[in-house]
Amino acid sequence: MKPVILDVDTGLDDACALLLAAQHPELDLKAVTCAGGNVGLDDVVINTLTVLDAAGRPDVPVAAGAAAPLIQAVRPAPHIHGVDGLGDLAWPRSTRTTDPRHAIELLRDVLRAAAASGELITLIPLAPLTNIALLLRTYPDAAAGLREIVFMGGSAGIGNVTAAAEFNTWADPEAAAIVLAAADELEVPVTMYGLDVFYDVVVTLEQARTLGGSQSADLARAVIEKRSELYQADGATIGDGGAVCAVIDPAGLETESYPVRIELSGSWSRGRTIVDTRVRPGDLSGDPLGQAARSVQVATAVDGKRYAELWLTTVGMGL
């Protein structure tokens, strides 16, 4: 089994990811940490506990972390995820409590234990990278417990929240820049699962409506139905769930190593991931900025049908 930790701002697509990570037989979900993002932190925490309850995983520790980005205010997305973040589905809300530790303390403790045991962990951030930036700068020794970071965020091309930027990097670009810098310094491999592939793992309404018979499958069906309704389509992407698929089945994802910077100013481009795809040496000769010092594996193509089937099969198992 692959030990993993998810860092979430649980809206509808994080729910897709949590249902998958909590139930796939090849993953050992060690913990889930929460940050403000799609909705405020209190709703993120309740949503996360609710989804894990539906997945039959009350054993997974959940901790609340950063309520706001490092510098700017939380800018939620109720038009995408509903006021409560779970599409206002009126799903029974969890009454469980969180781990008493702050998210970065839970991350620290689990990663230090992993380093001591040699069972390294894949960290899958699906939220603004605030918690991860705080972790790597506050407890850099915890990085010894990391096998890799596979984060949902950024793009080599398109934006979504703005014409230039993807939501997670736009929501806390300073944190994203810190994570890339710290991962480079601490020699932690990074994969960016961004908008270039995000929309390509689609579950149709017809497929979703085959799910049922358990809380997990019922919630998975409801999430796809709600996302389809919001986008006025006959199906919906599993969004963040694709990053979890990439950890389970990396052969379904194509990546290229590219230098990446995060735009921190820019009137129209704040939060953009500047992915340097130039390949000819001459392309750099007139560039006073040069290439970024850090390169990450950038997702460039995905087998959408393969990952959609992986998700459907897993969430349909039910518990």
Automatic annotation (TrEMBL):
This is Nucleoside hydrolase. It comes from the Bacteria. Residues 4-308 form the Inosine/uridine-preferring nucleoside hydrolase domain. Keywords: Glycosidase, Hydrolase. InterPro entries: Inosine/uridine_hydrolase_dom, IUNH, Ribo_hydro-like. One of its GO terms (molecular function) is hydrolase activity. It comes from Kribbella hippodromi. It holds the Pfam family IU_nuc_hydro.
